[in-house]
Amino acid sequence: MTADLLRRLPHRFPVLLVDRVVDVVPGESLTALKAVSANEPWCVDFGDLPSTLLLESWCQAAVLLSSWDEPDRDRVVLLGAMADVEFHRPVTPGCVVRHSVRIVDARGGTVAFTGRSRVDGQDVMTVGRVVTTARPAADLRPRGADS
Predict the structure, then answer these.
(1) In the structure, what pLDDT confidence band is assigned to residue 141 with cuts at 50, 70 and 90?
(2) Most-buried pick from 41, 67, 93, 128 (CB within 10 A)?
(3) Which residue stretches of the chain are H helix?
(4) CA angle 135, 64, 90 (to 5 degrees)
(5) SS3 category, 52
(6) 2-138 in CATH: which number?
(7) Against a cut of 0.70, is the pTM above it?
């Protein structure tokens, strides 16, 4: 599944923060796992997985869901907004985070998601809403930049 993730996401080590997709209903929901290791640079420096990276990992799962049917390396998914994100407890090395993502609304390239992240059956983060939009990569290049 890792090769499939690498085809679907532009991220690479150390910022590829999804290890495996365990369940997907295209256009509806996705469940992904992130194993937190003590060897990750941020855990070496800070001990726990920073909450911003927990949210980034969940958002990568959301991007996987939004593009599951039609992965397109020539499109870039941009974060548009987030609301009602709550962090409930720290995530430490050795934890396996289970991200649950559900599509609330999708119109064109804009998708709204909701969901949660759990460790050992307990919420570590809840996400009220995250909105993304997809744009052709060529549209985001500075004018005059080489292709």
Answers:
(1) confident
(2) 67
(3) 2-8, 41-46, 51-66, 137-140
(4) 115
(5) helix
(6) 3.10.129.10
(7) yes
